[in-house]
Specification:
Elements: E1 7-11, H1 16-27, E2 31-36, H2 39-48, E3 53-56, H3 62-76, E4 81-84, H4 100-127, E5 131-136, H5 150-165, H6 169-173, E6 175-182, H7 188-195, H8 199-203, H9 211-223, E7 231-234, E8 241-242
Helix pairs in contact: 1-9, 3-4, 4-5
């Protein structure tokens, strides 16, 4: 897919790794809609990131997700690209010590919301001849090791499997759904956590994933029309690679 003139939505695009994705997509000629819960950061994104518009969106709220897609169609004529980037978990307790409301919110943020957003863009993209969805998962959803937030790990594992299950969408709607799976990303929060470690602990850590490398992977999955239902791993200190689909 040639990104020039395409309309892209990036969730949680006003800051962090999402902001880097917005800048990269805009530099490639896409009209970028930033969907974010932070009003002030969202408005700044229009001036600083090259975004075309901002729509306040809490992707855990169905009506907000519907408004996000409708706003892109109304303001820019349609949707060609969706990057389901929003994710994470709360600063309080994790499952099983978190309340069902708390861990349920994490599942909504990391799995249900991307599924709903994908569902809502399928028809608008089909009308424009096809499109591309890129889900941003996490290595927390890969493998069988214990994980500090079981609900987050389960949601990201579900997002990866959801992506693979959606490979058929290319034939039925012209929409390619793929997934990028980064390890620990070098955001301000991550760099702060590294700084709080002892020198010995930091020495044991592999290099963090550069947000620019993540943005490159997103663009590659959008551009490469041979890829559908595929999962791209971004490990720390190693080149990105596609996982075997079988």
């Amino acid at each position: 897919m040639d990104l020039e003139g395409k309309v892209a939505i990036v969730t949680a695009g006003a800051a962090g790794a999402g902001a880097t994705m917005v800048q990269r997509l805009a530099a490639e000629g896409a009209t970028v809609v930033v969907a974010d819960v932070d009003d002030a950061a969202g408005r700044r994104a229009i001036d600083t990131l090259g975004a075309a518009s901002f729509v306040r969106t809490d992707i855990r709220v169905d009506g907000d997700v519907e408004h996000m897609v409708g706003s892109a169609e109304e303001r820019h004529g349609g949707v060609d690209i969706l990057v389901n980037n929003a994710g994470g978990w709360g600063p309080t307790a994790n499952y099983p010590f978190a309340s069902p409301l708390q861990w349920g919110s994490t599942l909504d943020l990391n799995l249900r919301a991307p599924m709903l957003a994908t569902q809502l863009v399928l028809e608008p993209m089909r009308r424009r001849g096809g499109g591309a969805v890129v889900n941003v998962a996490s290595t927390g959803g890969v493998g069988l090791a214990p994980y500090e937030s079981p609900e987050y790990g389960a949601a990201k594992a579900g997002l990866i499997r959801f992506t693979a299950c959606m490979a058929y969408a290319r034939e039925e709607t012209g929409v390619r759904v793929n997934c990028v799976v980064p390890d620990w990303i070098a955001t301000d929060r991550a760099l702060g956590e590294l700084a709080a470690m002892t020198p010995e602990q930091r020495a044991d850590e592999a290099p963090l994933v550069d947000p620019g490398d993540l943005a490159d992977a997103v663009v590659e999955l959008v551009r490469d029309e041979s890829l559908a239902g595929r999962v791209m791993l971004l490990p720390r200190g190693e080149p990105r690679r596609l996982l075997d689909p079988v």
